[in-house]
Write a structure and sequence with these properties.
Number of helices: 13
Distance between the termini: 40 Å
Radius of gyration: 21 Å
Mean pLDDT: 80
Order of helices and strands: HHEEEEHHHHHHHHHHH
Strand order of the largest sheet: 1-2-3-4
Length: 355
């Protein structure tokens, strides 16, 4: 894999929290490279359009993390489990899309939508009935080695910690030298949080200019439109889906902004002194902030009105950057992903309700 390809994959990995919905909802999704992953409560399907126009899919049964590990049924902890599973699934979907879009000079006899689909080993036997037939004989595209994906993930985690934890803290510490008033517990963390937010907005603004990322943002818009179409109760078609807006209140973009605001309050309540102690606290408190933010979003979602509007409004504004109007063929891919997920969900007899 070339350096450019590795960097491209790393950029997509950095955007996973922005592009996905981490809630255990009736239906949600995530944009990937030239495609979309859609998830139902107990199933998911990834659909990717290859360069030759065919759509390849992968679908599996996937139990909720709270069903496999009962500890994640409890408040604050459930957010960590749900979002952890969402990130794991996001990496899996990204890897599939990267494989599917690699040039394949040896591919023979493949037809659209031929990727194998197998249920999760812990799933109900009925899920097997919805599994698609294996792909026809022929050599598949050369896959990205697992060690490259692992290196990419490690690089992305280090980059995240450096950019959003180390840099804001370091800059705030520098500013506190000529401005001693910033040494106060509250003022220091407010400035630190504002710098973090500016870095986040600047990163999104810059990366959105990259052609590859703009394509992902178009698929992101297509995913949202198809979800809106499904939730409306109207037949899910390209024509119907294209009538909806591209920004959705359950998007990961909205969640990240809530996380950034909550982090300011949490850091201000932790009385630690010294650069290294503050830096360590920012890393160790990530699960706590995630759990609190998830509960707040969940509480607001179940009580529509001013609170929900207040929490989601900034994220909806920011989605003007992270979503773009999709073409009809991109929306068609999102619809195919939704159909695959719902087909497998029905085969399992899953109850289609919001968690």
């Amino acid at each position: 894999m070339s350096f450019r390809s590795f960097f491209r994959l790393a950029a997509h990995t950095q955007l996973l929290p922005v592009l996905e919905s981490g809630e255990e909802t009736l239906v949600g999704g995530q944009a990937v490279i030239e495609g979309v992953m859609m998830r139902a409560p107990h199933s998911y399907c990834i659909a990717v359009r290859r360069a030759n126009g065919e759509i390849v899919t992968e679908q599996h049964a996937l139990p909720r993390v709270s069903e496999k590990y009962p500890i994640f049924k409890y408040p604050f902890v459930r957010g960590i489990g749900t979002l952890g599973q969402a990130m794991w699934l996001g990496i899996k979907a990204l890897r599939f899309s990267a494989h599917a879009t690699l040039p394949d000079e040896h591919k023979t006899g493949a037809t659209p939508e031929t990727a194998a689909s197998q249920p999760d080993t812990g799933s109900a036997p009925r899920a097997a009935a919805a599994a698609a037939a294996p792909a026809p004989a022929g050599r598949r595209a050369k896959e990205i080695p697992a060690w490259i994906m692992a290196a990419n993930l490690m690089f992305s985690v280090v980059f995240f910690i450096f950019l959003y934890k180390f840099v804001p803290l370091y800059l705030t510490d520098l500013l506190a030298t000529p401005f001693p008033a910033l040494r106060g517990q509250i003022t220091f963390n407010v400035v630190d949080g504002l710098i973090r937010l500016l870095i986040f907005l600047g990163f999104l603004s810059l990366i959105s200019r990259w052609k590859d990322i703009r394509r992902v943002f178009e698929y992101h818009g297509g995913e949202h439109r198809v979800v809106f179409n499904f939730e409306s109760g109207r037949p899910v078609t390209i024509e119907n889906a294209q009538r909806f807006v591209t920004w959705h209140p359950r998007c990961g973009t909205s969640f990240l902004l809530v996380v950034m605001v909550i982090s300011i309050a949490v850091y201000a309540l932790v009385p630690v002194e010294g650069f290294l102690a503050k830096f360590a606290a920012r890393i160790l408190l990530l699960p706590v902030i995630t759990g609190i933010s998830y509960e707040l979003i969940r509480f607001a979602a179940k009580r529509p009105g001013s609170l929900m509007a207040l929490l989601t409004a900034p994220g909806l504004w920011l989605q003007r950057v992270t979503t773009k109007p999709p073409a009809d063929d991109q929306t068609a891919v999102a619809i195919r992903a939704l159909e695959g997920a719902m087909e497998l969900e029905r085969a399992q007899g899953g109850e289609l309700v919001i968690a």
